[in-house]
Structure formats: structure tokens, C-alpha cells
Write a structure and sequence with these properties.
Elements lengths: L1 E6 L3 E7 L2 E4 L16 H14 L6 E6 L4 H6 L7 H10 L1
Antiparallel strand pairs: 1-2, 1-4, 2-3
């Protein structure tokens, strides 16, 4: 099991790269899965870091999921953006 970070406003936290933060409702950056935390404590640390980075991330919650893969997020009723379509793009390559 793992913990995904979710926001009602921004969707599911996809990850961070070079200081940019990605959420499923705005930009999935071509990903088919999201960054997860292996424990609730680590998820809470990540949420604290995101909240410190921006006041926009005040509604974050940790959601237990099987994995960060888009189909496990969808099974947990989390927003996946276009991650399923991204998976299809990679399958065709």
C-alpha cells in the first residue's frame, strides 16, 4: 500500500520536477502514475512541504492506494487527468 496526495481543487499530486509542482487537474506531464509516499507519516511530511511552498495547497489529503499507477488511482476515485491517455501513447510507441 501507498499514500497518494489529493486536492479537491487541483486533483492528484503527480510529482515535482525542478521546482515545478504537477497535479492531475492542471498538468500530468505525460505521466502514467503519480508519486506516492510509503507511509502516512511521509505523506504528511510531503503535504507540509507543499503547503509551505504555496497557499494554494491548503486542502490536501493523503489517500491510501494500492499504487501510484493511474488504474489504482481511478479505483480509489481519485482524479487522474489524462494519465490513462498517456498510457495509450506509450503503448503505441
Amino acid at each position: 500500500m501507498a499514500f497518494a496526495i489529493h486536492s479537491a481543487e487541483h486533483g492528484t499530486f503527480v510529482g515535482e520536477c525542478m521546482g515545478l509542482v504537477f497535479f492531475s487537474k492542471t498538468e500530468t506531464a505525460g505521466q502514467t502514475e503519480v508519486a506516492t509516499a510509503p507511509s502516512l507519516a511521509e505523506a504528511q511530511d510531503l503535504m507540509a512541504m507543499l503547503r509551505d511552498a504555496s497557499d494554494d495547497f491548503c486542502d490536501l489529503e493523503a489517500v491510501e492506494v494500492q499504487s501510484g499507477h493511474w488504474h489504482d488511482l481511478k479505483a480509489a476515485d481519485l482524479h487522474i487527468g489524462d494519465m490513462d491517455q498517456n498510457a495509450g501513447k506509450y503503448a503505441d510507441a
